[in-house]
């Protein structure tokens, strides 16, 4: 494991001094973009392994591996909020829960002192205790997924008898067992938080009473809380899916043929004279996506982007002045109508249909769409899948 200044590893540096870590990485002249169609989660998993020094020869500061804001930009194209994009991108290495951007997006967030990242949330129909219960259910589901993930890993490694002579074998088994106990306790703690919140000294109709719950009563409460949570999640998912469709529409238009070639663009648009790749792909990087298009087609990406508007949080006079500046930027953009017509011509009308929630028939999104919003419900075994089936 390599030393990183006064820290024992890059992982320790990232967790202890994230701002210094980011600053040092951004100053590195040898950094280059890791640009391809792979999902940000896959790329972050690879980068996370490096951060933990599992692939130490590459390192962070002495190597050639990217760390940039491209992930944040791509996350916004997929419909994530600004804070979620920051969480997924620039600050991907922070442990889950430090920013907890999705929970803030679901239930609202007052934002920073300047008002940045403020979000209304989707739980306005619920009271404070119901919202707290939903947050605990989310924590319970997260701990449950990690519990079963570690159980699966332990089962797999115990089946590999040939590894038993490895010096790290026993240590890995003990770490997995420790994780299983930790996440099992965390799930139980979340359930207990819900129980304690809804029992004990309560107030009903202005009168104080002592309240307790039998098992079936508490089971009913948990079921209602999961139903409430799914209601909030559906509303959140619909907005994210619709924002993602707009991002895909912008990228589709930016990749149209017959425009001024950018970097690699002559290989990706039209017929490839050299036959290096299939039409619409970039050598060594595969099919074009949000990240690669922004790099290879900066001008077309700009023209296909959505208009910018001044923040509502700005004072009236400053807001108007800043909007005039943004209007100059917006002058070079193509209209929404032109992008939508191009999508129709290309047979991509699906990008134009907005998802919604019908009061009787429920949400219109497909299983594939919801799996992209909440991938954790579609991975591995155990509580995550069980929770999704309930929903």
SS element count, helices: 16
Helix content: 40-55%
Beta content: under 5%
Q: How would you classify the helix and strand content by structural class?
A: mainly alpha
Number of distinct beta strands: 6
For the terminal residues, how far apart are their CA atoms? 44 Å
How does this structure look, described?
Helix 9 packs across helix 14. The chain has 3 domains: 98 residues, no CATH class; 85 residues; 115 residues, no CATH class. By secondary structure, the protein is mainly alpha-helical. It has 16 helices and 6 strands. A hairpin with a 3-residue loop joins strand 5 and strand 6.
Give the arrangement of secondary structure elements.
Elements: H1 10-16, H2 18-27, H3 40-51, H4 70-77, H5 82-88, H6 101-107, H7 128-159, H8 169-197, E1 200-204, E2 207-211, H9 215-254, H10 265-268, E3 281-282, E4 286-287, H11 290-296, H12 298-304, H13 316-330, H14 336-345, E5 357-358, E6 362-363, H15 367-373, H16 383-390
Antiparallel strand pairs: 1-2, 3-4, 5-6
Helix pairs in contact: 1-2, 4-5, 7-8, 7-9, 9-12, 9-14, 11-12
Give a brief rundown of this model:
With 391 residues, this protein is mainly α. The protein has helices at residues 10-16, 18-27, 40-51, 70-77, 82-88, 101-107, 128-159, 169-197, 215-254, 265-268, 290-296, 298-304, 316-330, 336-345, 367-373, 383-390, and strands at residues 200-204, 207-211, 281-282, 286-287, 357-358, 362-363.
């Amino acid at each position: 494991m390599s030393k990183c200044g006064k820290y024992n590893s890059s992982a320790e540096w990232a967790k202890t001094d994230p701002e210094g870590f980011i600053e040092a990485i951004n100053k590195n002249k040898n950094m280059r973009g890791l640009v391809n169609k792979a999902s940000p989660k896959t790329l972050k998993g690879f980068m996370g392994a490096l951060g933990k020094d599992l692939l130490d020869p590459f390192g962070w500061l002495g190597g050639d591996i990217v760390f940039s804001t491209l992930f944040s930009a791509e996350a916004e194209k997929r419909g994530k909020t600004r804070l979620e994009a920051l969480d997924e991108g620039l600050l991907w290495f922070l442990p889950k829960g430090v920013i907890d951007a999705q929970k803030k997006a679901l239930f609202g967030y007052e934002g920073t002192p300047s008002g940045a990242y403020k979000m209304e949330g989707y739980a306005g129909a619920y009271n404070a205790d119901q919202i707290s219960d939903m947050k605990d259910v989310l924590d319970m589901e997260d701990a449950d997924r990690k519990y079963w993930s570690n159980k699966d890993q332990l089962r797999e490694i115990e089946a590999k008898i040939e590894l038993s002579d490895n010096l790290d074998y026993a240590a890995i088994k003990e770490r997995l067992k420790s994780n299983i106990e930790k996440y099992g306790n965390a799930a139980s703690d979340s359930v207990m938080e819900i129980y304690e919140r809804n029992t004990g000294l309560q107030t009903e109709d202005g009168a104080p009473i002592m309240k307790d719950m039998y098992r079936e009563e508490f089971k009913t409460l948990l079921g209602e809380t999961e139903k409430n949570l799914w209601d909030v999640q559906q509303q959140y998912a619909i907005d994210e899916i619709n924002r993602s469709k707009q991002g895909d529409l912008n990228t589709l238009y930016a990749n149209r043929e017959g425009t001024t070639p950018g970097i690699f663009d002559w290989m990706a648009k039209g017929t490839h004279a050299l036959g290096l790749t299939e039409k619409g792909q970039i050598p060594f990087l595969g099919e074009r996506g949000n990240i690669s298009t922004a790099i290879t087609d900066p001008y077309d990406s700009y023209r296909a982007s959505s208009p910018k508007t001044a923040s509502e949080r700005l004072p009236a006079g400053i807001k108007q002045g800043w909007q005039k500046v943004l209007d100059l930027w917006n002058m070079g953009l193509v209209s929404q109508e032109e992008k939508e017509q191009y999508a129709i011509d290309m047979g991509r009308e699906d990008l134009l249909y907005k998802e919604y929630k019908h009061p009787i028939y429920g949400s219109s999104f497909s299983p594939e769409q919801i799996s992209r919003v909440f991938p954790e419900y579609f991975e591995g075994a155990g509580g995550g899948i069980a929770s999704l089936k309930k929903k």
